Every structure is written in structure tokens, then in C-alpha cells.
Write a sequence for this structure.
């Protein structure tokens, strides 16, 4: 049974980034482009059901365009600032209302680079997500650390990922 939500309850969205490749580091433009997929999770209390009433079905797979999704954009992108969900993508919904979506794409962010110690310099680039229409008091993003599975990362001879982490606010 869903709990009673009040206007004071923030909406929690979990975001985890899985790095697939570092496609470009542009020192002149101060940008970094990556290919990655995100795992975005939240609970929608309007999508709760009792599996016993529906032949023990405890999860379903639906098109993203058929459900409500939070508006999420990459804040410091240099690409067109649009919602990161692909409407033709799929979502898995569990009977407790938990929704999981895995958008995939190329993300380019501005990134201050200091190359004074080239070729031994280190760069730190952040990927900050936000909601266009909901202030932090309404939509709270929970960044989750995945440790970046090295089996997913495409190796590049020009640069190496030494440590991948997400710094939570």
C-alpha cells in the first residue's frame, strides 16, 4: 500500500553512471566527451500492485513513453540540453512501484583542465544532473557509486581512467 505523500516529501531519484569509453578530451575547448549508460531509479506510488492479484507477476517491462518520468538533464553539458530519456527505451517496473531505466548516450561536459604537468597531469570532470522543473526541495537526486566496471570500459592508448567515482553532495 503506498504511503501518503505530502507536498513536503521530496521525490528521490537514484542516478548511477557506467562509463563505456572516453571519446574525446579537448584541452583547447576544455571539454570531455564520454559514452556511458545511466541507471536511473525511483519509486512511483501510482504503479504499485499486489502480485497475488495478477498471476504472481512481480515486474513488467514497458516503453518509457508510456509512463511518467522525472525531467532530468545534464547540467554542465555542451550538447543540446534535453531530457536524457529515450522515449523508445524500456523501463522495468516492480510491483512495489520501483522503476528502473537505462538511458545510453554520448555526454559532453565542460571540464577545467590543467595540463601544466603533461603527460602526467590528472583531470577531474563532473557530471551534474538536475531537474528543470523541480527545485531540490521537491526532487532529490541520489548519486550512486558503481566503481566503474573495468570490463565495460573501452581501453584507449592516449588516456587512462585511474579512479572513477561520484562525489555526492
Amino acid at each position: 500500500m503506498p504511503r501518503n505523500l505530502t507536498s513536503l516529501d521530496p521525490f528521490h531519484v537514484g542516478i548511477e553512471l557506467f562509463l563505456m569509453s572516453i571519446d574525446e578530451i579537448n584541452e583547447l575547448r576544455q571539454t570531455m566527451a564520454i559514452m556511458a549508460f545511466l541507471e536511473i531509479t525511483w519509486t512511483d506510488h501510482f504503479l504499485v500492485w499486489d502480485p497475488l492479484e495478477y498471476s504472481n507477476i512481480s515486474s513488467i517491462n514497458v516503453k518509457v513513453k508510456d509512463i511518467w518520468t522525472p525531467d532530468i538533464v545534464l547540467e554542465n553539458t555542451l550538447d543540446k540540453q534535453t531530457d536524457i530519456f529515450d522515449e523508445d527505451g524500456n523501463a522495468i517496473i516492480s510491483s512495489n512501484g520501483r522503476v528502473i531505466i537505462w538511458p545510453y548516450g554520448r555526454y559532453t561536459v565542460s571540464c577545467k583542465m590543467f595540463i601544466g604537468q603533461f603527460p602526467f597531469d590528472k583531470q577531474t570532470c563532473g557530471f551534474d544532473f538536475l531537474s528543470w522543473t523541480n527545485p531540490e526541495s521537491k526532487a532529490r537526486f541520489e548519486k550512486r557509486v558503481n566503481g566503474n566496471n573495468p570490463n565495460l570500459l573501452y581501453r584507449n592508448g592516449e588516456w587512462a581512467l585511474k579512479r572513477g567515482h561520484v562525489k555526492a553532495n
Summary: Residues 11-113+129-135 form a domain with the Acetylcholine Binding Protein; Chain: A, fold (CATH 2.70.170.10). Strands lie at 11-26, 31-48, 59-63, 73-74, 90-94, 96-101, 104-110, 129-130, 139-143. DSSP finds no helices and nine strands in the chain.
